[in-house]
Write a structure and sequence with these properties.
Blueprint lengths: L4 E12 L2 E13 L4 E5 L6 H8 L7 E6 L2 E2 L5 H11 E4 L11 H12 L3 H14 L15 H13 L5 E5 L7 H16 L3 E6 L2 H4 L4 E6 L2 E4 L22 H22 L1 H38 L4 E6 L16 H8 L4 E16 L2 E10 L3 H4 L3 E5 L4 H5 L4 E5 H7 L10 E4 L2 E10 L11 E6 H9 L6 E6 L5 H16 L4 E5 L1 H43 L1 H9 L4 H37 L9 H27 L3 H6 L2
Parallel strand pairs: 3-8, 3-9, 6-7, 7-8, 13-18, 15-17
Antiparallel strand pairs: 1-2, 1-4, 4-5, 9-10, 11-19, 11-20, 12-13, 12-16, 12-19, 14-17, 15-18, 16-17
Helix pairs in contact: 3-4, 3-5, 5-6, 8-18, 9-16, 9-18, 9-19, 16-18, 16-19, 18-19
Length: 648
């Protein structure tokens, strides 16, 4: 009959300097199912190394180890983890309980990695703790339990998935006499129930309670009595268990990894908060700059549009500075009429201008006098603080009326509350003031030149004596492409003149330039914010790396009870993503607070949070968690179970 555990010429050596230290020297050993075996020896004799190999925590340097006839060397890491999880149960001298979990949650851990449904494993944990006399201590954390109680929790954990083979490393070493006796009584009960119990100890009183004592010294077995005859054990060990369906296994594993990650975060609140801090600042920076930058952009563009950027100016000649006489009279009044009839034209106004002196009383100032139509002020989005613009009768009758700008009003009438109805001299022509226009602030700064506006018929007929226009300004209707309007305007005037003796200047170019500039500035600021997010991500990585170092023993415990490398990887990766997602949510909240605070102090700003900005924030935080959590998670998954368990 094949032995349950069979070792043949097992050797284990470790590097030491330039050479190797051999800890096990050709161990040959067989253990039958249902036996209670004690492995004894002095400290440093190799008994703990032998136990690690028996429990598949470590691999021999050479030799053959068979479990139920199967060569362990042929199993990959996941298969070894499944073997530990489903068939071996470990009882450690220092208990090795997870400090942030309750007694019941500690007992559950092997079943979590086995994919057992939550309800079934809760019931199983409850039954085991009741059986071991800890029914009233299920919700207690390890720090609230005595040494004997913690060891019983450790035994319950070992039995969670069956534990056909119980490996007990100095199970009574940290206990008082009474607690030690209770633990040994439990191990005897397990043996009676068909479990194979292997005790590693240096205590001869504990070893004497075993059916068979194997003594090891300096890596060699010096005493190995044959197994006692016993009835066939009722426990069989099957290495290959059918896995759950892929989707169910994935969803269950992800849900449990998420739960464990949340518990680990909650157990270390300060560390978690410090980890989140960089992400909170980074996400708040990104979202605030995107949202506030968009509000500032819209405000700037609205101001630019208000000064008439959706306008097209038509000038005689080939280009600016062209003073060829043959082109100076190319724009006629009929051209203005034809333009005004086009469907894409909101309004159009001609312009004739000349520098003239203005006089009122004893005040004499220089100004730019502009002959325009009544639609001029609509074209440039100007409003009136007093009075109004010209009407059609005044245009047709070449009325001697004038509209002042705010600067001219202040110069000519410094002490008058109302100026409409006053008469001033424009050049040598008396004109009645009918309005005061509030001119839009120029994006290029204010001009020192005073400006007044008269009907263009008055300007050309009474003052200048010309029958042509200096320029025409067209305001394009909302919804029409300014570029297409420019093309149609050029086509119209070319057909009317028979040649192209004019040029246009599309003010929409200013708006496009401003949009490009604001986009560039916003992109630059966003990149600065992204850098802060990356710095926060590096902080996450650093703290997670420290966390892996701090939690090395915890990782070893999880691997000993059956966690695969992928389970450890997913848990730490989910922790990093969870930290970043929670940090992202707090960062978005902080950015909203910043935005609303700015809106109180800047009431003209329209700040709104688009779904795109919020979605971008969470994508950034998730990506940051995956990117900077991968290295620590990978390091955790690559830890050797034996080395991890030995770390304090």
């Amino acid at each position: 009959m094949t032995a349950l555990l069979e070792l043949r010429d097992i050797r284990r050596s470790y590097p030491s300097g330039e050479g190797q230290v051999e800890v096990l020297k050709g161990i040959t050993l067989s253990i039958e199912a249902g036996e209670m075996v004690a492995i004894v020896g002095a400290s440093g004799s190799g008994k703990s190394t032998l136990m690690n190999i028996l429990g598949c925590l470590d691999k021999p340097s050479s030799g053959t180890y068979r479990v139920a006839g199967s060569d362990v060397a042929l199993l990959d890491k996941d298969a070894l983890a499944r073997l530990r999880r489903e068939h071996f149960g470990f009882i450690f001298q220092r208990y090795h309980l997870l400090s942030h979990l309750t007694a019941a949650q500690n007992v559950e851990v092997p079943a979590v990695y086995a994919g057992t449904e939550r309800k079934a494993r809760l019931q199983r944990a409850h039954e085991l703790l009741q059986r071991l006399g800890l029914g009233e201590r299920e919700s207690y954390q390890p720090s609230q339990l005595s040494g004997g109680q913690q060891q019983r929790v450790s035994i319950a954990r070992a039995l969670m998935n069956g534990g056909q083979v119980i490996l007990a490393d100095e199970p009574t070493g940290a206990l008082d006499t009474r607690s030690g006796e209770e633990v040994m009584a439990i191990l005897h009960q397990l043996r009676d129930n068909g479990h194979t119990v292997i005790i590693v100890t240096h205590d001869p009183l504990v070893a004497a309670q075993a059916e068979r004592i194997i003594e090891i010294r300096d890596g060699e077995i010096i005493s190995n009595p044959p197994p006692r005859p016993r009835p066939a054990a009722n426990a069989e060990l099957h290495l290959h268990t059918p896995p759950e369906s892929g989707w169910r296994q994935f969803s269950s594993g992800f849900r449990e990894a998420l739960t464990m990650a949340w518990r680990a975060m909650a157990a270390n609140k300060m560390r978690t908060l410090l980890t989140m801090l960089g992400i909170i600042i980074g996400i708040a920076s990104v979202v605030s700059i995107v949202v506030v930058g968009d509000a500032a952009k819209q405000l700037v563009l609205a101001d630019i549009r208000a000064i008439g950027t959706n306008t097209i100016d038509v000038y005689p000649g080939k280009d600016f500075g062209d003073d060829d006489p043959q082109y100076q009279q190319s724009l006629k009044y009929d051209d203005l009429t034809a333009i005004q009839k086009q469907p894409w034209v909101s309004s159009a106004t001609p312009a004739v201008s000349q520098s003239l002196r203005l006089r009122y009383g004893g005040i004499d100032v220089a100004s730019s006098a502009n002959g325009v139509s009544g639609q001029y002020f609509n074209v440039y989005g100007m409003t009136f603080s007093e009075g109004a613009t010209f009407n059609d009768e005044q245009l047709k009758g070449r009325a001697q009326v004038v509209v002042l700008d705010a600067n001219t009003r202040r110069q000519l009438f410094p002490n008058k509350a109302k100026v409409v109805g006053e008469v001033i001299l424009v050049g040598n022509m008396p004109a009645t003031v009918i309005g005061v226009a509030e001119e839009k602030q120029s994006m290029f700064g204010s001009s020192k030149i005073l400006r007044v506006w008269l009907p263009y018929t008055t300007m050309s007929g009474r003052i200048m004596g010309q029958s042509w226009l200096n320029s025409i300004t067209v305001r394009v209707k909302e919804g029409y492409s300014s570029e297409q309007a420019d093309q149609q305007l050029t086509r119209l005037l070319t057909l009317r003149h028979g040649k192209k003796d004019f040029f246009t200047w599309n003010m929409d170019g200013i708006l496009k330039t401003a949009e490009k500039t604001t986009r560039t500035l916003q992109l630059f600021l966003t990149l600065v914010a992204v850098i802060s997010l990356l710095v926060g991500g590096i902080g996450v990585m650093n703290i997670m790396l420290v966390s892996v170092t701090e939690r090395t023993r915890e990782i070893g415990i999880r691997m000993a009870v059956g966690a695969r490398a992928s389970d450890v990887l997913s848990q730490f990766l989910i922790e990093a993503v969870l930290v970043c997602l929670v940090g992202g949510a707090l960062g978005v909240s902080l950015s909203m607070l910043i935005a609303f605070t700015l809106q109180i102090f800047l009431p003209g700003w329209e700040i709104g949070f688009s779904p795109v900005a919020l979605l971008t924030a969470f994508i950034c935080s998730t990506f940051t968690g995956v990117l900077f959590g991968w290295l620590p998670a990978r390091n955790a998954a690559r830890l050797d179970p034996v080395d991890a368990l030995a770390r304090e």
